[in-house]
Amino acid sequence: MPTITDNNKQQWTVLSGLFFIYMASNGIVMHTLPLLYPELIDSFGWTEAEVTLPATVFFVIGAITSPPAGWILDRFSPRVTILIGSLILLAGLLFYGRVTTLWQLVAIYAILGAGLSLCGLVSNMVVLSGWFDGGRGRATGILLMASSLGGTVFPLIVGAGLLAWGWRDTATAMALGTGLIMLFSALVLLRDPKKRVVAATDTSPSESLGPTVMAALADSRFYRIILATGALWFVIIALTQHQSLYLARDLGLSRSSLPAVFSVFFACSVVGKLGFGLLSDYFDLRRVMAGSVLLLGVAIAILQQLNVTSTPMLYTYAVLAGIGFSGAFTCIQLLIASFYWGAAYGRILAILVLIDTLCGALGTRTVGLLRAAQGHYHDALLGMVILCAIAAVTILTLPNTQQSGAAK
Description:
By secondary structure, this protein is mostly helical. Helix content is 81%, strand content 0%.
């Protein structure tokens, strides 16, 4: 029998593997690739709506493939699933630097969406939730801040690469570095959840506890969660995909300054993910989450009124938005686990990620079309503030629950 110390070592080894995988995958695909949008517009003459179309396809493909990924994760090795997803992601990134047409870029983002559904949020949360009962909020905060760390470091590296090599060589170097990190972590550091190993030899009824998929779908709380998390994904994904275009093209932020703002934004999101993860272990998760959502809404309101010549307000936005968006994103994962951890958790989480990701795709596309039609982001940003308020109120209507209790 392993000792407590051995178990702790295993937990933190697995968490470190998940950390590096999530840092490389989401840190690059979600948070760093948008830095290339202005370069693509300059190279090919695409509009804001066109250059963000591939990202919309990315989220749609990710949404469609999430339920099959959840089914696979509930039945097969999550470690192998993550490894396969990492290889698919690497293939997509390697082709990025060779793109010459918009539809090639759309195809590349479709590949990235399929790969990330296997090695991204759902698979990482399935492995983490299987290894951590107590302290899940802290562990989730640590895991999710990995993408923020990637968003802090990689934009600075990519920004320097753009100035020195151009976007094509930078994209290729980025792909090779990402692949090396992910493959090493999956092969050396990851282990399948302990509970999955135990379940193979122990048919204790406790292993099958938790709501079924049908029970979740019949519960009104499920649809309130969808309303809140869907609104947040609409806002979060639209914000992260469009802020580089807004700052660079509408406000005229220089090419050398844009990576620095991104870096501050994601550095503060490291604080937000870890901080709100810790707070959720000690305080009412609903109130903690609502607070993070309202903070995000305030930051977007500042962004709407921003003048690039006001450097203090620019970085005030970056700090508040980084903390708010990351805190909300962390609390979403904890909220879902607190209600639905059990034998069907992977499938339930995948259904929610399907809906949320479609909302994110809708947000990206809607904001892009509004920008193209109106010539500005003013109304789109106002709508995002309203959605934050709706999400915060909806979250507070949910019943209280203890995620540690739900995990047992």
